[in-house]
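Subject: design request, 312 residues
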């Protein structure tokens, strides 16, 4: 059953005719800082870009009131959709797309921060000049927190996610995340996110696998910083959630997954006797601050691979 929705549009929304809709889902986060950074480009965009926000069941009236006041003061055409209950990542993104009016959709996570002051202008120009089916701008850690408790996640993300657009283009479907993802409307209407995914992880990569079989996936250098670094414990919990989703991807796209190191390691670990008993040791090592960060990151990757080995 769908959650009921409260919709609030700012004064700029009714008359706008956008070419690009920026879709921002959030849950128990305050996207106010991101909105303020995007608003800096409002004058240059002159109504070509709209924002659509989805509060996926935070149930915080004070936050809703703050955001309503903020968007009412913005020049960027903005709609806020507030749900009474959580619907989940895939359903939420599908709901955002149905509320958007632009010919292209930019999925942007609420904890992202543009790395330069022409971020939306770059996306809008690409939308009108090249009209790509799918494009990923990449993400960085340039503005992310430097605290020691995030060191393992920073190490892992730097190695596997914060890659140049040339490197990402070598496996275009693998390096597609809804943190900073442009999709042409007709493509999204053909291939929506699978609502069968639950919890965290892999729904965006699985979507990209499906899409890349029919459309070109473009990679460019238009990065935003991922501010939401996690502690080891939080990241391990996400990996635990993601194991069933990984198995779902393996079943649907064995040809793609066969080239992924996470799958190859999981297959090897599956043959290790007593893996379930050994697996907690990997997690424990990742928590040990006396160890070098690279070794802790390696241990957490092994923990993830062991989870995936049991799921496939």
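Subject: RE: design request

Done. Sequence follows.
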């Amino acid at each position: 059953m769908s959650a009921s929705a409260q919709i609030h549009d700012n004064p700029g929304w009714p008359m706008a005719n956008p070419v690009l809709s920026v879709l921002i889902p959030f849950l128990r986060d305050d996207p106010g800082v991101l909105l303020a950074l995007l608003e800096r480009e409002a004058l240059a965009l002159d109504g070509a870009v709209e924002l659509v926000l989805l509060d996926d069941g935070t149930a915080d009236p004070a936050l809703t009131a703050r955001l309503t006041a903020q968007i009412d003061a913005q020049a960027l055409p903005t709609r806020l959709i507030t749900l009474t209950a959580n619907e989940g990542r895939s359903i939420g993104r599908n709901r955002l797309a149905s509320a958007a009016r632009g010919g292209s959709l930019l999925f942007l996570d609420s904890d992202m921060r543009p790395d330069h002051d022409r971020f939306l202008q770059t996306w809008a120009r690409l939308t009108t000049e090249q009209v790509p089916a799918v494009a990923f701008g990449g993400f960085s850690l340039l503005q992310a927190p430097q605290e020691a408790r995030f060191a393992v996640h920073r190490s892992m993300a730097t190695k596997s996610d914060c890659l140049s657009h040339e490197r990402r283009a070598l496996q275009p479907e693998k390096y597609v995340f809804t943190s900073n993802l442009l999709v042409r409307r007709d493509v999204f209407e053909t291939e929506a996110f699978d609502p069968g995914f639950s919890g965290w992880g892999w729904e965006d990569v699985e979507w990209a696998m499906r899409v890349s079989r029919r459309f070109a996936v473009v990679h460019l250098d238009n990065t935003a910083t991922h501010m939401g670094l996690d502690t080891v414990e939080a990241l391990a919990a996400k990996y635990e959630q993601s194991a069933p989703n990984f198995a779902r991807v393996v079943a649907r796209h064995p040809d793609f997954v066969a080239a992924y190191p996470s799958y190859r390691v999981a297959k090897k670990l599956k043959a290790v006797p007593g893996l379930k008993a050994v697996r907690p040791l990997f997690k424990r090592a990742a928590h040990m601050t006396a160890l070098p960060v690279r070794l802790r990151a390696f241990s957490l990757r092994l923990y993830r691979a062991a989870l995936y080995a049991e799921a496939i």
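The chain has a mean pLDDT of 93.
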